[in-house]
# Entry
Amino acid sequence: MKDVLAKLFGFLKYILLIVSFGLIFFGIMTTYSRLEKPLTDAVSIFLPFVLVLLSFIVTMIMNSNLYNSKLLFNFVSCLVFVVTIIIGLRSIFDKNMLLFYKYQINFNPTFFADNLSAIEFMLYMIFTANVLLIICDLLTKSNKAKMSVEK
Amino acid sequence: MKEFVAELLELLSVCILVLCLSFAAFLFITNFYHYKEISHFEVFDEGSKIQYNEYKKILARVDKKMKSVNYDAVSYSTTAKPIYDYYHSCVDSLSSGTFASLGNKGNINSKDIYDSNDDILKKYNNVCIFYIPYNITVINKNNKPSVSFDSVYKVTEAKRKIVIDNADYLIKSGLGNSSYSFVTDTSRNSIYNKTSNELRLTINNYKMMASILEDVANWYVAEFGGNN
# Structure
């Protein structure tokens, strides 16, 4: 059951990552076009997404066997992306927030900007945890290889 | 040694993941409660309906007074007639605004209150409560009135400033609903109900606006003859 859930969340996290990145990108483009700022100023906002994607790819290539940790890791990743999607969708569609009407761009940039730092913080935490798991896996694999050679 | 370091790193990563999980869960629940709070509709209660109907009665009285003057007379072509035209534009604007349709709604939300006060700042200030008294003073410079408008103008200006300040405050208060808040039904019913309070303030604001028009109408009837 754990394996099934780990694999399900493991598959889902890639889709949710792409969707959440798309919504954040849309939000940044809408906000920056109103302020007439170049998108290159938003590199620091997209950086955690790129780092998380790279760490996911490295984990996939390494084919890690840490299932117990992976279920927690995949579930937390999915939850973080779901929260990011919720925040993105509310910035675009939640018309009950009156700041939606203030700038007349069919978007609530204030709510979006308020939550952006929280999203980046969670993504950096995901990235850090993933890196630690990769190092942990490398150490475990090298230890096992050493023990099998000794045998 | 390697095993120890690997276990330590795994423990550290689990700690970070648990921290991240708690933070993400907090944001998830906060967004859920915030959405529930700002989607809340307030019933248009009887007390507010009575105040709303009083506003309508004031407007009906003003309309009766303004129409009692025979502004079509030739002698009134540069005085009473243009004032009536300004009043007519104001009434047309009031009848097409958000507040006019509020009486027919059973449920009010923060958007209705925001729009009603936004109309005051963007429309009625220019078309009604500033425009009419100011233009009367301009007309009176060329055509000396028998009944002085100066004292009426001071009163209407003072009331107008109160209306604008109230509308500005209510708009800013409404815009603050994008910030997260935790409001339960218990606190809303027993302590403070933001939507209900702001609705009453908005109705009082419109009543004050109507009283400005009534002050102008009283002077209009006294100056040009008509029924009070």
